[in-house]
Write a structure and sequence with these properties.
Elements lengths: L1 H12 L39 H4 L10 H5 L11 H4 L3 H16 L10
Length: 115
């Protein structure tokens, strides 16, 4: 019995093998960020739902020859802009990417930006 109590007390006094968490904000409660959407005087961010340009204007066929239209959906570096940024629906995004690729192949659009 004496051995059991001495081992338990030595285990309690021994430091743990893992170091305590240190760094900025260790153990301190978090405070809200300044200028956030929840504070007084802060504006609440309202994101507008993006609507497909082709659906609203009732454009069914996206032509590879319409370079002005296609350039609006190609980034400055030559990449095709994703749906989440343009707001185009899935069906039209697929047709749009095909039209961009076709116009690149016949040299109406550039594959990459010039430097």
């Amino acid at each position: 019995m004496a051995d059991e109590t001495s081992t338990q007390s030595s285990e309690q006094q021994a430091p743990s093998s893992r170091p305590a968490h240190s760094g900025p904000g260790a153990g301190a409660p978090r405070t809200p960020r300044p200028g956030g959407s929840g504070g007084p005087g802060g504006r609440k961010f309202f994101r507008r739902k993006k609507v497909c340009k082709f659906c609203t204007e009732k454009i069914d066929a996206i032509s590879y020859r319409d370079v002005r239209l296609l350039q609006g959906f190609v980034a400055e570096r030559g990449k095709i802009v994703p749906r989440r940024l343009t707001g185009v629906c899935t069906r039209h995004q697929r047709r749009l990417s095909l039209a961009i690729k076709q116009s690149r192949n016949i040299a109406l659009l550039a594959f990459a930006a010039r430097f």
